[in-house]
Specification:
- Helix 1 packs across helix 2.
- The chain contains 3 helices and no strands.
- It starts with a helix and ends with a helix.
- It is mostly helical.
């Protein structure tokens, strides 16, 4: 479950998306961008690939 702060950020992303004629898919993208979730996920995947090559 998200913390209160994370919930507020998520709701802000939903409000931002919907107020600009976007949908919840865009809200999800906004949230991933704001929180760095996509960047973190990409780094984890690259680190896993790097570790696999080193073994």
């Amino acid at each position: 479950m998200r913390t209160i702060e994370e919930q507020r950020v998520a709701l802000d992303c939903v409000a931002l998306a919907l107020s600009n004629g976007r949908d919840l898919t865009d809200a999800e993208a906004f949230y991933a961008f704001v929180t760095g979730e996509r960047q973190d996920d990409a780094k984890l995947k690259l680190d896993a690939v790097d570790a696999a090559f080193r073994t």
